[in-house]
Design a protein that fits this description.
The complex is a heterodimer of chains A (about 110) and B (about 120). Chain A is mostly beta strands. Helix content of chain A is about 0%, strand content about 50%. Chain A has strands spanning about 5, 10-15, 20-25, 40-45, 50-55, 60, 65-70, 75-80, 90-95, 100-105, 105-110. The relative contact order of chain A is 0.34. In chain B, the strands form 2 sheets. A 6-stranded mixed sheet of chain B has the order 2-10-9-4-5-6, with no helix packed on it. A 4-stranded antiparallel sheet of chain B has the order 1-3-8-7, with no helix packed on it. Chain B is globular. Classes of the chains: A mainly beta (about 110), B mainly beta (about 120). The interface between A and B is medium-sized, with 27 and 21 residues.
C-alpha cells in the first residue's frame, strides 16, 4: 500500500500568519492517465471532512483563495497564506491513484 | 444539493453483524463510484471500500477484506456496507463519500460501536 506521511502532525499558528503542511507518498502518484490524484481535506471539530483541493492544486468551489496546493510526483504541500480562526481543525492528504486509497495521519492546526 | 445520509450504526457485540446504508440525493447516483471511509474515536481517516457505478469494480482495505461487503442499488439511490464478524477495532464513525480518486461530498457519518 502507498504510505502517506504528513508533517508536522501538530501546527500551532498565529492568526494572520502563514502555515504549511507537507505530505509525502511512498510511491509516485502520477496516474496512467497523466493526472496526479492528490487531495487535501479539512475536518473541523465535530464535522465531517470537507475536500479543499483535488489533483494537487485545484481548489474546490467555496474554498477561500488563502488555501493553495502544490507539488508533484511524491512531494506535496498545502499552504494557508494567512490563518484565520475558522481554519482550526485537522488536515488530511489522500492519494487517489493507487488501490487501496490511503490517507495521511492528519495535521492538527491550532491557534497559538 | 448533493446529500448523503448514512444510517444503520449502533452497538453490536464482537462477532456480530451490522448493515450500514447511505441514501443519496441531489445527483445522478448511478453515474458515480462510491466509497466508505471510517474514523475511529480520536483517530484519523481510514479508507474502507469502493464500488464502481456499475459494480464491476470493488475494492477493500486489507483490514476488512473477507468480513465486509459493499453493494449498491442504483434504482434506490442507495449504498450499503454489510459488516460481519465485527471486532472491537471496527468501532468508528463510518462515512459514505462520492467519487473514486477524489471524493468530493461526504455524509455526516454513522457511529458503529463494537463492544460486549
Amino acid at each position: 500500500d502507498v504510505v502517506m506521511t504528513q508533517s508536522p502532525l501538530s501546527l500551532p499558528v498565529t492568526l494572520g500568519q502563514p502555515a504549511s503542511i507537507s505530505c509525502r507518498s511512498s510511491q509516485s502518484l502520477v496516474n496512467s492517465d497523466g493526472n496526479t490524484y492528490l487531495n487535501w481535506f479539512q475536518q473541523r471539530p465535530g464535522q465531517s471532512p470537507r475536500r479543499l483541493i483535488y489533483k494537487v492544486s485545484n481548489r474546490d468551489s467555496g474554498v477561500p483563495d488563502r488555501f493553495s496546493g502544490s507539488g508533484s510526483d511524491t512531494d506535496f504541500t498545502l499552504k494557508i497564506s494567512r490563518v484565520e480562526a475558522e481554519d482550526v481543525g485537522v488536515y488530511y492528504c489522500m492519494q487517489g491513484t493507487h488501490w487501496p486509497r490511503t490517507f495521511g495521519q492528519g495535521t492538527k492546526v491550532e491557534i497559538k | 444539493e448533493v446529500q448523503l445520509v448514512e444510517s444503520g450504526g449502533g452497538l453490536e457485540q464482537p462477532g456480530g453483524s451490522l448493515r450500514l446504508s447511505c441514501a443519496a440525493a441531489g445527483f445522478t447516483f448511478s453515474n458515480y463510484g462510491m466509497i466508505w471511509v471510517r474514523q475511529a474515536p480520536g483517530k484519523g481517516l481510514e479508507w474502507v471500500s469502493y464500488i464502481s457505478r456499475s459494480t464491476d469494480a470493488i475494492y477493500y482495505a486489507d483490514s476488512v477484506k473477507g468480513r465486509f461487503t459493499i453493494s449498491r442499488d442504483n434504482a434506490k439511490n442507495s449504498l450499503y456496507l454489510q459488516m460481519n464478524s465485527l471486532r472491537a477495532e471496527d468501532t468508528a464513525v463510518y462515512y459514505c463519500t462520492r467519487g473514486s480518486a477524489s471524493p468530493d461530498y461526504w455524509g455526516q457519518g454513522t457511529l458503529v460501536t463494537v463492544s460486549s
